[in-house]
Design brief:
The structure is a single chain. The protein is of the alpha/beta class. The chain has a single domain, classed as Vaccinia Virus protein VP39 (Rossmann fold). Helices cover 28% and strands 28% of the residues. It is built from nine helices and twelve strands. The protein has an eight-stranded mixed β-sheet, with helices on both faces. Helix 1 runs antiparallel to helix 8. The longest helix is centred in the first third of the chain and has 12 residues. The two termini are 28 Å apart. 42% of the residues are buried.
């Protein structure tokens, strides 16, 4: 078997590398400017390597009966890990992926092609601009995993953006976002307050060490208009190799505290990760 070799290329918004995993025959890690973006196993597309992606996968597993096809909108493409996961676990799903970096999309499709029949359409566009033109009540799940470098862009953090997300989702739909922050959690708390203007139900999934303020890390926010099965979600996240907690209800309201919703004119990107957060050059 020919040894897989790394692939590196300048794309529209940085320098991308695809590096083969020596432990898995057809698995690849995508980094952009040294920051890990995605991990894909072409032989096992339902394998989710990153902890935060597994947490997103848990929510996707629970939003509808197992195997039921869904209409899913992904803001942020990376190496298309979650679209591959949905295609594998929910055949017949219709998916749209919006990724601002056309060069990155071209690299991923060239080197790590989607399987035939994945039902996935790719769009090189700004996430907010595409969302504002999307039809109302058109998707079951909206997944936001958008980072400009290592920061969530400001225009995807506001009340106006949250309302657009709510408009595009069907009544029983679920919004998922991958965010990153550290104590005192000014950004994360403001995002919970902001999403609360568009969704009645909120949940937060994160490792205890992150919630206790011991380190910078990812947090998955889940938002919906209908009650979430937080008990089932908590069982799944607690059983992971790196267990996470699910905060909701009164506990989440206490965590959010007096944070205010953010409007477009006041929006800022998520905080810059500390040096050495990712450990990849």
């Amino acid at each position: 078997m020919t040894e897989a070799l790394p692939v590196a290329r300048t794309v529209d918004h940085g320098f991308a590398k695809l590096m083969p995993d020596v432990d898995r025959a057809r698995a690849w890690l995508l980094t952009v400017d040294g920051a890990p973006q995605s991990y894909v196993d072409l032989d096992e597309p339902t394998h989710l390597e990153f902890e935060y992606v597994r947490r997103l996968g848990h929510v996707l597993d629970l939003v509808a009966d197992p195997g039921k096809p869904l209409d899913v909108l992904h803001l942020g493409g990376g190496a298309l890990t979650l679209p591959r996961y949905v295609a594998g676990t929910r055949p017949g799903s219709r998916q749209d992926v919006v990724e601002v970096d056309q060069g990155l999309l071209e690299l991923v499709v060239e080197q790590l092609p989607l399987p035939d029949g994945s039902g996935t359409a790719l769009h090189a566009a700004d996430a907010r601009t595409w969302l504002e033109k999307a039809p109302s009540d058109s998707v079951d799940v909206l997944v936001a995993d958008v980072f400009g470098g290592s920061r969530v862009p400001a225009h995807l953090t506001s009340v106006e953006y949250a309302r657009e997300a709510g408009r595009v989702l069907r009544d029983g739909g679920v919004y998922l976002a991958n965010l990153a922050d550290a104590a005192p959690f000014a950004f994360l708390r403001s995002q919970l307050a902001t999403l609360g203007t568009a969704f009645e139900e909120l949940a937060l999934i994160a490792e205890p060490a992150v919630l206790r303020g011991r380190r910078f890390g990812n947090a998955v926010v889940v938002a919906a208009r209908q009650p979430l099965d937080t008990a089932a979600l908590a069982r799944r996240t607690a059983a992971d190799a790196f267990p996470a907690r699910v905060e909701h209800g009164d506990a989440l309201r206490r965590f959010t505290g007096a944070a205010h919703p953010v409007r477009d004119e006041d929006a800022v990107p998520s905080p810059e990760p500390p040096d050495g957060t990712f450990g990849i050059g």
